[in-house]
Amino acid sequence: MHDGGGLKSSVVSVKPGLIDQLLAAMETVVLGKRRQLKLALACLLARGHLLIEDLPGMGKTTLAQTVARVLGFEFTRIQFTSDLLPADIIGASVFDSREGRFSFQRGPVFTQLLLADEINRATPKAQSALLEAMEERQVSVEGETHPLPDPFFVIATQNPLSQMGTFPLPESQLDRFLMRLELGYPDPRAERQLFLGGNPRLRLDALEAGITLEQLHHLQAQVERIHLSESLVDYVQRLVDFSRQGGDFDVGLSPRGALALIRSARAWALLEGRDYVVPEDVQQVLPSVAEHRLRGALDHTGHRGESLARRLLDGVEVVE
Known about the structure:
- A hairpin with a 4-residue loop joins strand 3 and strand 4.
- The chain has one domain (18-315): P-loop containing nucleotide triphosphate hydrolases (Rossmann fold).
- Residues 1-14 have low confidence and may be disordered.
- The radius of gyration is 20 Å and the shape is globular.
- The longest helix has 17 residues, at 255-271.
- The protein has helices spanning 18-27, 34-45, 60-71, 87-90, 124-127, 131-136, 171-174, 188-196, 200-206, 213-224, 230-243, 255-271, 279-290, 306-315, and strands at residues 50-53, 75-79, 91-96, 101-106, 113-117, 138-141, 144-147, 153-158, 179-181, 249-251, 295-296.
- By secondary structure, the chain is of the alpha/beta class.
């Protein structure tokens, strides 16, 4: 499939093989999940945040640690529990008796890659502590604003809502995540390799940073310059309009969701070595961008939009 809108054909100027080198390094630890690793990298390049939902023991935490190690990020993990407080995440003002004044003590959110582990085991009050941080890249405490590091990347994991002790993420929190993905069970070949490969922690500890901060910022800036043709924008608009027509859809894509789709498609195009977006880029990222934003008319549990994302792709033609 190709968008015949007079697209550019030049290759994006990046360090040759850099993306493939990063993915290959991550695949030495997270086996058989190249697509999920590629989506995670696209999410970062699009300056978004990532939500991973799956059963315990599927490698969600390992994926986050692998991304942090390969990118050379400062890494902090917060274990979300029912007694977690907002101050445990963003920090608090503490009285300094020597200085005779209050000073702000930074919380673990002040890092480059924050792993919010099992985020839906915390109460909505604790979950909401991340809203400003994820959207504005800052936190406000007692009228003072404190900027977060750049880059600032949140990877949150959550257990399925059917499990005990979980609090569903509200729509406002879900919408802060550019993408949502699942890892799923490994295929037999990858699982056998996992069994025979020894301790995965040793492979993780052996990883080294494969990109500099300057190179990362360069790639993120490149994403913003990826070309969108008029015909490609038409295709995205038809997808968005289709999700808002009712029928199977109770909640369609918002303007923020549409922008998220475009940003993600641009990042995917960059990973493919192009400086323009084609329909396949949109199709590759749409499930991860749209599933957690869509809700079916008969779905009272919410946030399970796999069939709706597929209906979008099947129901909208690339060329009208």
